[in-house]
Amino acid sequence: DMSSRCPFSVHRMAIIGCQLGKSIGEWFGPFTASQAIKALVEDFPGAQLSAYITKDGVVYKNDVYKTAKNNKQNKDFQSILILVAIRLGINNLNPIYYDALRAYFRFPQSVGIAGGKPSSSYYFIGTQADGLFYLDPHHSRPAIELKSNDQLTEEELLTYHCDVPRKISISQLDPSMLLGFYCKTKDDFEDFCSRVEKISQPVFTIAQEAPDYSDDDCGVFSEDDDEFDKSNDKSDDDKSDDDSDADNNFTEQVIELDNVID
User: Fold this and answer.
1) Distances (CA, A) of 52 to 38, 134, 237
2) What pTM value is reported for the model?
3) Which pLDDT tens digits describe the chain residue by residue (262 residues)?
4) What does the domain layout of the chain look like in residue ranges?
5) Smallest Cα–Cα separation from 185: which of 104, 58, 46, 70?
6) 50-53 sheet: strands from edge to edge
């Protein structure tokens, strides 16, 4: 829906993707997805939310505080969404990160993980033993008119829930993923940092500030969709010139807007 009441709709996500160089229907990698989310947040000040994308797997506290500061509303710390686009292996998820990923779901700040397995992308919301519970964005539902909860019929309410819980083994998880954490206050953010620092084999780390490199070439790597390339998972018939930045295992639902957007 392109309505102003739907600032984070899949249609707006697709339009932002075009501004980021992704055609309608083209796969989004974790980093592109995080950039799109950040752009949508910045375009909707009414949410009173800010968004921060990690740099090379590190959350820099001074950058988070700068991002969360809202001068217009005289707020020292506005609620912030921290997005961690990461790759934890080459073709398979490295088992060394299993415990850390399970631990992140227990963080009160966690909003889940967007990831999946070959040819499927899911939204993971919880864990039990070696299983990950997920929602499947490809399972379409009838569109429901926006209205208050007390105005929804029982049939309409059911469309917001799954009939059965869906779960896969953590060993099946694709190594390319996007982690999300929501910190409502400064104390909430400090608690988040404290929890991250207690993880023995962390997926990402916390630092006070970014190193001041005198030479731009000193960076370890650039966090681009090229870092998440999984073109080898495409069949020979499907491979094309966009293989260098296609992340075929971390895919968003193919969005067809031909009949929606001129």
Assistant:
1) 7, 24, 38
2) 0.76
3) 566 778 888 888 889 989 998 888 787 889 999 999 999 999 998 889 999 999 889 999 999 999 999 767 767 899 999 999 999 999 899 999 999 999 999 999 999 999 987 678 899 999 999 999 999 887 777 778 878 888 989 888 888 888 888 999 999 999 999 999 999 999 999 999 999 999 999 999 999 998 887 655 554 444 454 444 444 444 444 433 444 343 443 334 333 434 434 4
4) 10-245
5) 70
6) 50-53, 80-87, 176-183, 110-117, 120-128, 131-135, 166-169
